[in-house]
Amino acid sequence: MPEGDTVWLAAHRMHAALAGHPLTRFDLRVPRFATADLTGRTLLDVTPRGKHLLARVEGGLTLHSHLRMEGSWRVFAHGARWNGGPEHQIRAVLGTADATAVGYRLPVLELLRTADEETVVGHLGPDLLGPDWDAAEAVRRLCADPARPLGEALLDQRNLAGIGNVYKCELAFLARATPWLPVGELPAGVPERLAATARRLLEANKDRHERRTITPGGHVDRPDRKVYVYGRRGKPCYRCGAPIRHVEENDQERVSYWCPGCQQGPGPGRPSSARPRR
């Protein structure tokens, strides 16, 4: 499941493989941009912004993509077999003489002027993996609506950019609050600790690819214990032994896992009409 750390790693792999080299192949398999051809232009850089990926190309153009639930970018050496999925799932191909980046199942893919990037990422809050991370501003935004459920506030990229369902559930567990507890009811100091913990966890996991680990030593001492609650429906909580619970609200993009023994606050109720912005 792509989250801020996954997008960061994809962007950095693409940048390392393609940046500074002229494109020998540029293929967008979406109707609106199917005729676009940027071959011969140099790919200048690939930058992650929250859960968005910006590939900037010579001539003032940017290829913007968002992975959402199932999208991915894979990098292959020149001549290597592409094994990221079936051919019909490919949405973009960026190639140089030495490497090729292939975008699979990308639900958002558009070509825009680099000068217009703010139209797609300008709404984002402080980027948890960005060089301009601002913890105080992130906390201010997170607490701006005291009545909003914690899970929704964490998922809203206008508050802090990079958190998806996995981190939402794990951060709520670490805060000992259910995802439906209003932010304003968190104990003093908890929002600050949540922002700091979110930053620390994404930093720790940004180079681990599919080995994302939340628990201490989960990737070394206890590889079977990488997360506290996410994906552990019905299994005993590591802290109190209560079975982990699970619910899907609206659709699978709003899945929540929590421990009813450790986490205080209300359970799932009527879904909010305010959908977090990506």
TrEMBL record:
Its EC number is 4.2.99.18. It is an enzyme of class 4 (lyase). Residues 2-103 form the Formamidopyrimidine-DNA glycosylase catalytic domain. GO terms for molecular function: class I DNA-(apurinic or apyrimidinic site) endonuclease activity; damaged DNA binding; oxidized pyrimidine nucleobase lesion DNA N-glycosylase activity; zinc ion binding. PROSITE patterns: FPG_CAT (PS51068), ZF_FPG_1 (PS01242), ZF_FPG_2 (PS51066). Signal peptide: none annotated. InterPro entries: DNA_glyclase_Znf_dom_DNA_BS, FPG_cat, FPG_N, H2TH_FPG, Nei2_N, Ribosomal_uS13-like_H2TH, Znf_DNA_glyclase/AP_lyase. It catalyses: 2'-deoxyribonucleotide-(2'-deoxyribose 5'-phosphate)-2'-deoxyribonucleotide-DNA = a 3'-end 2'-deoxyribonucleotide-(2,3-dehydro-2,3-deoxyribose 5'-phosphate)-DNA + a 5'-end 5'-phospho-2'-deoxyribonucleoside-DNA + H(+). Residues 228-264 form the FPG-type domain. Keywords: DNA damage, DNA repair, DNA-binding, Glycosidase, Hydrolase, Lyase, Metal-binding, Multifunctional enzyme, Zinc, Zinc-finger. Belongs to the FPG family. This is DNA-(apurinic or apyrimidinic site) lyase.
